[in-house]
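Re: that chain you flagged

S.,

Sorry for the slow reply, it's been a week of failed gels. I finally had a moment to sit down with the sequence you sent. For the record, here it is as I used it:
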Amino acid sequence: MGKKLLGGLLVLAIVGGAVAGGKPTDPEVLARLGAAVAGKVEGAMPSRSQLADPATTFKVGDRLPVEEQVRLRIRSDKSMAGAEVEVLRGANPGEVRLRGVVATAALQLRAAVIASETVGVEKVFNEVAVPE
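Prediction finished late last night. Pasting the structure tokens below so you have them in one place:
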């Protein structure tokens, strides 16, 4: 957040300085430069047909993958605030693998409980570590 704000202020200062102390021809130069940059950005982007629209990616009734459901539940659980737990798909459907490091054994257990109580999860491999 701080980097975005700093970057925005920097851009504002540069543009403001250019406008305040600029020449009468500067707006045309800036417009040409903006058009050139926009052309390069558009050229580097994939075509619109290759981009997935959120509305077309998920339809009503679609479910998130099990590992994503677990990831969201862990992140939204207040007791897991600040814990870095990675959730991976298991080898078989319904399996999830938890990895990461948490501060206490209680958080390690809580991550496993959240995962095991998620609809669609049949088996949890808890590889979350607790530092000694």
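What I noticed first: The chain has a mean pLDDT of 82.

Talk soon,
D.
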